[in-house]
DNA sequence: GGCCAAGTGGAACGCGCGTTCCGGATATGG
DNA sequence: CCATATCCGGAACGCGCGTTCCACTTGGCC
């Protein structure tokens, strides 16, 4: 039952360098885990990940004592990616568009916030620290837009994170059946941040799509 | 493996009246299922429900051939409740506040949209029909506010449903640690619908709360 | 080339959960 | 009060999945 490991919190092997083949396998494992968790959330099985990485199950457990540790490594990578997106936005994007572009890029990054919004066992505050380390830079992005007058002053960095989670949740629930549902929702939600609105650029979800939205397994093929 | 039953889609026993004790048990089962699914989503176990209903597991399977059928019954009840809320809002609430009050009441209704946003197996289009039957009345509520000029004209009934799902998702993810997170998010999201905004009435999520938001099981007791 | 620590794969185990099954209990009509 | 159709409880089964374990392979150093 996914107890928290104390012996080697995926800091590899305590310092000694890995054998070359092991290093390659490790990279493949993390990459596969990123993709599989992004697709199926935390419920993805270790076997799926092993198959995708073309590796035995034992290999997974050599580097990561428990599933939670592997997931934590993926979340760490996602955190880093998010920080990078924020930095890019600060460097490239004009202040009026900063928050909006930041949110859009986070949603677009395939493995950034996808895995992050799925339920998972407690992992000792690791993500707590990761998220906390992200808030200042998100704050900078937000402040830029607030200074430019395109975002309200009563919004906080945590609101941006909650917004990201909500869009991700809508994407998880709807996008398989209603491909642009999350983008349209994003339009509306971002307008909740703006002092003045613009019309949404994505078309509404259809009723037919909506009916299929909440189911996941064992359904007949989509036909419209 | 939760196959779809064909023999008695929880239409009770094909018409013959139930024994009195059986009828009481059935009511307790549905009520317990509503509460437990609302708390834990579809992942709640049949045993949990049986215990809450103070009934044996066999009793569950007598009326509902599979877990999916029991869940479907709960969703049907939730659909009915939602329709009732919409009717009440149309009768009691002034048009300018209609959509907003509708969404707030749906979120506040403990067993209304809570279970509805959890992932579950496909159940033969049953919920597709249920949701479709709800859209017209939601449309009436929405049209009322649009006519009053408090909701944009480019919003559709399905947007309201997606909004409900997103708020529900935020509540599921955050509210255990940040009790008002979903209410604050609701404020912001509703402002995405309004032509002009009002400041949010709920305070932002704290960073400390946020770090705990995405985990579910086996965590240390909350301490702030 | 030969040694062996490091690494690997996958069978097997334990557990939780959905589901089945059936011996016993109970309501209800006569 | 009896007969019996109906209903109930919960043990048992099968399966999926996280995890463990160990016989076998391989890269790196002498």
Mean pLDDT level of chain A:
79
Number of strands of chain A: 0
Query: How many strands, what sense, and barrel or not for the largest sheet of chain A?
Result: none
**Cα Rg of chain A:** 19 Å
| SSE class of chain A | mainly alpha
**What's the oligomerization state?**
homodimer
- Low-confidence segments of chain A, given as residue ranges, are 1-9, 206-224
User: How many helices of chain A?
Assistant: 9
What is the strand content of chain A?
Answer: under 5%
Distance between the termini of chain A: 41 Å
So what's the overall shape of chain A?
Answer: elongated
Largest interface: A-B, 62 and 60 residues
User: What share of residues of chain A is helical?
Assistant: 55-70%
Compressed to H and E, one letter per element, the order of chain A equals HHHHHHHHH
Helices, strands, pairings?
The structure is a homodimer of 224-residue chains.
Chain A: H1 20-40, H2 46-53, H3 57-63, H4 67-92, H5 98-108, H6 126-147, H7 157-174, H8 181-191, H9 207-212
Chain A binds a DNA duplex (30 and 30 nucleotides) through residues 1-2, 13, 18-22, 25, 45-47, 50, 55-59, 61-62, 65-67.
């Amino acid at each position: 039952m996914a107890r928290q490991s104390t012996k080697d919190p995926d800091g590899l092997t305590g310092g000694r360098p890995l054998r070359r083949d092991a290093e390659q396998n490790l990279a493949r494992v993390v990459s596969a885990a990123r993709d599989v968790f992004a697709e199926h959330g935390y419920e993805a099985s270790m076997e799926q990940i092993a198959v995708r990485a073309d590796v035995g199950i034992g290999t997974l457990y050599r580097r990561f004592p428990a599933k939670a540790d592997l997931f934590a490594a993926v979340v760490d990578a996602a955190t880093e990616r998010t920080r990078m997106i924020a930095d890019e936005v600060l460097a490239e994007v004009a202040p009026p568009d900063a928050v909006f572009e930041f949110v859009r890029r986070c949603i677009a990054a395939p493995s950034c916030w996808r895995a992050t919004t799925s339920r998972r066992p407690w992992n000792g505050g690791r993500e707590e620290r990761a998220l906390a380390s992200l808030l200042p830079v998100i704050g900078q992005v937000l402040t830029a837009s607030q200074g430019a007058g395109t975002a309200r002053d009563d919004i906080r960095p945590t609101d941006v994170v909650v917004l990201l989670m909500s869009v991700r949740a809508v994407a998880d629930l709807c996008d398989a059946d209603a491909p642009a549902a999350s983008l349209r929702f994003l339009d509306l939600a971002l307008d909740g941040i703006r002092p003045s609105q613009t019309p949404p650029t994505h078309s509404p979800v259809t009723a037919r799509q909506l009916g299929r939205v909440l189911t996941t397994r064992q359904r007949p093929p989509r036909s419209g």
